[in-house]
């Protein structure tokens, strides 16, 4: 079932940050329940259904999330953070040349999408509906800037490379997610990623 359309155009933050372990686990269970609903599509993406799936009271949910929009924002922010942390770990490690680094970045990007293909596809599909497309775009721009600075390459070329790869991966998620981790697909994707870098000025 599709989520309702939101009029908000910016990222929605949680009402308060969980501090104690019990609160952290509660928020985690809410996000896991929300992710399950998105992946399966068998229930409406509403606070009542999410709370029921998580096994928590609606009052407990509202302590941390003001509405379903805020939960969607948290899921997207979590997805973005996972991608960023994986990329930063690779960039902080020494490599045998730029080609090896680019390939490892590519593999990390594919893994981040392939490990939960249905959820990732739904997050990207619904981000504009919830007014959260800018969150994804800003994360992509920031990642391009970090990679460009680390590798000494033009940021515009890196951004074009990321956008090309992302487009192909998202299309594959919708049509044949099992192909994402095949060696032949990775080789073709690497060629796509390298094309903008070979024309750098």
Automatic annotation (TrEMBL):
MF GO annotations: DNA-binding transcription factor activity; transcription cis-regulatory region binding
HTH tetR-type domain span: 23-83
Annotated InterPro entries: Homeodomain-like_sf, HTH-type_TetR-like_transc_reg, HTH_TetR
A Pfam family it matches: TetR_N
**UniProt entry keywords in alphabetical sequence:** DNA-binding
Give start-end ranges for the coiled-coil region(s): none
Protein name per UniProt: Transcriptional regulator, AcrR family
